[in-house]
Fold each of these.
Amino acid sequence: MSQAARSERTTPRVALVTGASGGIGRGIALACAAASWRVWIAARRAQEGEAVAREVDSAGGAGRFVACDVADGDSVARAIAAVLARDGRLDALAHNATSALSPKPTSLRDVSLAEVQDHVAVSLRGAYSLARAAHAPLRDSRGAYLLLTSEAGFEGKARLPVYAAVKAAQRGFARALAREWGAHGIRVNCLAPLAASPALERAFALDPAMQTRVLGRLPLGALGDPLADVGAAARFLLSDDARYVTGHTLMADGGSCPVT
């Protein structure tokens, strides 16, 4: 597909967003909806996921829900197959899902192997399974794969050691895929957000001092909005507007992280 053809798509883009039943994933889905995309909400919680799909409809897109546990490779394959069966293509994939343990502050000596495995299963095995299942349709559409990482993956977090580790690993995985898949016309990027979300609220509740630390280092003075700030940035990286951007991590964190 030529650059001119990519800029003149005649059908709405089809996107799948994991972990989109709330928080930042919901913001990404609604931002894509504002551009009239067909957006698949891939999540484990059907009631919440279907509610976001209806919000996508109201926001100008076409919402679909698909049950998906990213830690289960077969579940991921079924979700991608459902997208292709209904819409016949996949243009954009955003892996936003994280372990439910992500906001839990702890020292490394108190982290069990089971907890490490849960982080790896969602963030890394999920990224791998999604890449494997989505490669062919993204190649056909010359599409984009986006991994939601974190500033923790740049600078580390003293009480979030495993979360920081898997988020750093996602960046390495994305850079490798960007090099491998560039020849196939697929772009692969990361987005490191800092926005108000249920997960961050839980983290603040578990470690009240964290809120003071986080807000105290924000040059822009406030947490981002999942839709207006993070969702819009994600949509850019998934769209043809970023067709010459790959292997990159975009910080949408209000200037919080001093490391780039």
Amino acid sequence: MTPVLAFDIETIPDCDGIRRIHELPAELPDADVAEVAFQRRRVQTGASDFLPVHLHRVVTISCVLRNDDGLRVFTLGEPEAGEAAALQRFFDGVNRYVPQLVSWNGRSFDLPVLAARALVHGVTAACFWDTGADNKDFKWSNYINRFHERHTDLMDVLSLYGGRGVPLDELARLAGLPGKLGVGGAGVWESYRAGRLEAIRNYCEADTVNTYLLFLRFQHMRCAYSPERYRAECELVRSALAKRSEPHWAEFLRLWKD
């Protein structure tokens, strides 16, 4: 089978980079540095303080990998390893497995962040950027083209490429899935400053599994998966999560009504 890699990222402001760009004092605390960036962004946009992609630092990359060996849920981004190591491991995985990537809003946010940060850190990602120079098949199906299935951004696809995507949490819960668990995207920066890295990882992992389960439902909807295969793939996820000891997976399974 073609491997499938669903993924999601969580980010914080790149305070070191913001200091460099805006020539802020090295002794200025991170919280104040981030606030400078937020205020500048609000002035630029007139409302939102959501930072541009290059000023996000990746703290977690959560993944669901489904291949011939089974199904694994895991997270890249150990604090002691740093952002560059997580990015390189992600793109090394793409090189190794050549998977179908699955995301929710990944084309507008997750992948542009990963690409910009990979460039900052000098990360290599040959397979991801291939459009046919190395593998001729990639001329017709690659990770870059919006309408190729090597990367399926479910939010983009389900909006019929109309730019009016629905929230992951709401659609997941309508489909009988748990939806978002834990800190929430808006709380990641506060949680990071409080040292609650595990809570961020748990939240990101739950989002990734929600995304993967909606992908299974999408495959069934478009008849790429038979009803029997759809049920079997869902049961594989249940079985994998039931073997995990972390409390957030017990909560996830309790809320999963599908």
